[in-house]
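Could you help me review a protein record that somebody else here produced? This is what I was given.
***
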Amino acid sequence: MDRKFKTVLTAMIVVVLTAIYIVGIFLFWDVFNVEDTLDELINKDLYGSDKSPDSSTKVDISVGGKTISEEEELLLTDYFTYYYAGLGALKAEKISRFYNTQVVSELFDSTALNYEIWLAKQCPVDLSFEECTLSLDISRRHEVPRSQKIEIELDLTAESDYVTTGRHAVTRGEKHTFILERKNKYLLIEEHSTERPSRVFFEAGLDKVLAANRLTQSDLAYTFFPKYTEPALEMLKDEMTAIKFTAPDSTVHPKPEYEYDRDTAANTAINGFSGNGAFTEYEENDANFVSRCIFEGNIPMDAQGEKYDQWKWYDEEVNTERKKTGCSQSWFDREAFYKYVLANSGFGLVGFETSSGGGEIGDVIQLMNGENAVSEYMITGVMTDNSGKVHDYLISNDRRSSVSLISVGCPEFRILHIAGYNTANI
């Protein structure tokens, strides 16, 4: 057998074996469903597997508004089912399974959920619940051009009754934005942003830790975030543990001519308004909402003095353009309202800043980030021990009703006592 024949024979054998190998792979791949098996191994902890939340909390979800696909709806409803199942049992569920691998939003959401559950456990009453009802109102669906990404904006409303107290807690129109992307056959979450307090205050804490290291979020890749998220979480826990509700303010303050109807104001804050009417929503709508509740509590609008001394929605006309004759800045702006309460000494609202343990139903509480008021609520319940010492407040605004101050997760706050009102200069 000459060399040329051997070479040809060898080449033919290699071709035949290669062909057999290739055909075998395709047969093996098809018969044994290798592709699906690999997908299941890769995504065994992600959306698409048949796991259920560990918690037995019942979560009912309805979806309305803009039309989205069944697959998109399933992903979002499963995500919120896991999230609220964890909150109900005060035990973190693995929401990472709904995210694309190594995305910062997953890290932030998982840490914020752990923080929120930890906060609930610090409250003087049991904040667990056995069932809740969620409503997802889809306000926008957008397919990102030249990509497999889908952007969905929604408003979430949630209602639940806490096991021990039976207290009805409500979240109204909480805003969420999701960017979804298809990976390994599954639709997964790529990005998620929200105004949920636990997430907002966690990110604020993270920014403080990064700033101490002369960094910002944009300086870091995903791999390096865990180095700072855990210290941020521990810092927030330490700050919340250090909260002390001090004794009520003993300073003698001027008494108003007329009393404030605290119960009506607080009940309005708890139940909300059936419609806006002429009251347009502003960017800081929590302050607008609280002003409306105070007005319902029999405190008259103040149109006297210069525009910065006023507290009113209207004078001679309802106004949505913020003219001098229309809504005053103190009505819808947190800092302006704070300054008005401290400065007003004539006609209208009488109030003052009080101690952390001096709040009463109907008073205003502003959550702070340094010198900035980042949200505003009305106190709608006071939790005290047998001696009358304050251990927590129930607070309400346009987004949340009867939630625990501690559970919101902000260690800095100030309280404005609304005493009543005067009808003339004194």
The radius of gyration is 28 Å. The first helix runs from residue 3 to 31.
